[in-house]
Amino acid sequence: MDELGNGLVPPPVRQPVSVILLAGGVGSRMRADRPKQFLQLCGQTVSERSLSLFLGMPEVTQIIIVVEKRYREAYFGRYVLLDKRIVFADPGLERQDSVRSGLELVPDTTDRVRDDTDDILVCVHDSARPLVSRACIRSCLRGRLYLWSCCDWCALQGDD
């Protein structure tokens, strides 16, 4: 059985995984004193919960946190000291600009000798959505599916 309780066991994730963790939003609809990804949830900020999820996955070789410079040390500084997989990118005006900023830090594999384990899988995750499970993420990665997470569910779209 796989981690989701299904009868079939998918192949393991063999490619390196780069995570783009989006934490650049302002959360204006929350009307809080800070962006919603920095609000407390059971003793941790929402973004810390999302980051911890990916830090616990050995297949993740890089975590690109897209966040304004003014929040980096206060909310992510201690993690950077403990884990060298973490790098920062600047957010853009729109979500798509922030994703592009993160993608620019994913290593280029075009000059390498190619095989089925050489491609880097990229997972884009909104840090204000901390309730997706590692099992759901791994299932998406194993199937080379696009991962879109929102609260406690993920929708899958096949890679054609």
TrEMBL record:
GO terms for biological process: isoprenoid biosynthetic process. Keywords: Nucleotidyltransferase, Transferase. It comes from the Eukaryota. Transmembrane segments: none annotated. InterPro entries: IspD/TarI, IspD/TarI_cytidylyltransf_bact, ISPD_synthase_CS, Nucleotide-diphossugar_trans. One of its GO terms (molecular function) is 2-C-methyl-D-erythritol 4-phosphate cytidylyltransferase activity. Belongs to the IspD/TarI cytidylyltransferase family. IspD subfamily. This is 2-C-methyl-D-erythritol 4-phosphate cytidylyltransferase. It comes from Cyanidiococcus yangmingshanensis. The lineage of its organism: Eukaryota, Rhodophyta, Bangiophyceae, Cyanidiales, Cyanidiaceae.
